[in-house]
Amino acid sequence: MKIVHVSPTSFGAGGILGGGERYPLELARALAASGAACELVTFGREAGIWEEPSGLRVRVLRARGYLGGHPAHPLAAALVGALRTADVVHVHQMRAVPALLAALSARVRGQRTAVTDHGLLGTDWGGRVQALFDRFLLVSAYSARTLGAPPARTALLYGGADPARYAPRPDEPREGVLFVGRLTPHKGVDRLLRALPPGARLTIAGSAGHDPRPPESGYPALLRRLAADRAVRFVVPAPDAELPALYRRARVFVLPSVQRTVYGRAIRISELLGLTLLEAMASGTPVVASALGGVPEIVEDGVTGFLVPPGDVDALRDRLAYLLDHPRAAATMGEAARARVLERFTWQACAARCLAGYAAAAARGPAPTAAPRRGS
Length: 376
Fold this sequence. Notes:
Layout (H helix, E strand, L loop, with lengths): L1 E5 L12 H15 L3 E8 L3 E4 L5 E6 L2 E2 L7 E2 L3 H4 L5 E5 L4 H13 L2 E5 L18 E4 L2 H7 L6 E3 L20 E7 L5 H7 L6 E7 L10 H9 L4 E4 L7 H7 L2 E4 L19 H8 L4 E4 L14 E4 L4 H13 L1 H18 L2 H18 L12
Parallel strand pairs: 1-2, 1-7, 2-4, 7-8, 8-9, 9-10, 11-12, 11-14, 12-13, 14-15, 15-16
Antiparallel strand pairs: 3-4, 5-6
Helix pairs in contact: 1-11, 5-6, 5-9, 8-10
């Protein structure tokens, strides 16, 4: 069985540094490492092809343009041909143009189809897009509810972390608070800066936001102002190779995402899962996270970390202060967090769930070719 994953945006220096880009790459790597014939097709300014040590074949198609100028909607005529030898076409971002084209071409060829969504907004054409997919292999129950995915064709993959790459080192001291992610308003880093306990050190690592719309375009500058006269270090952009050390040296990791930004904008979909949480947990680092989206499905409050109401600065400060002031309790939670990842949230476990999803699709047969009409 040959599996081809299609990701509209690539991860890395030539692409985007985010969970929606990292996820397809890591899942495809784990599938290849398990012995599956797997290829990842993505898009960029220049075409290229190579094979990774895991056995994963990566094919970058040259994007001739982007529909509406959006990076998740690259246009490449070579896409249909790149899928011709696949038995399973697994697309990421259900509403992205490459996902729709790949699924349509797979339907014509009689290839099985699967989709994993990462929160890209857009239309599903009255439910007709869903009919293109045999299986919905989703990152959380929250994602399934958000998409309105058909239960009979849905399985939960969740996500993973590499426990060898992200691992604690008992001989290394831990200090301070860590945030990893994009510096965009929905991540709530402004709340984190306001919640930072007196004297606490904070490292903010990741990639800068790129929203050109005012006032959101001024968010990085707002964060710099809030960080003034505090023990705050910005590592932006954060080299991927440095992340393991950042995770394992932190006393606590925090994901302070919000449902309404500092500018008053409501966030329709926030944190379908949270790969950074899993990477921190694998590193033996307890987490403090907003109780929204799919986060409560992976963080057990009071065991692997703490959940706080989104946007609640006082609750966030209280939980951070507790873990900073009680290193033994933090270490115990960190151990429980790593055990939880090893038990359920490695990429190998995610790949096994994915292969089971493909097998179920083969046993069930193809999805209907058109969405049912009302009353039928």
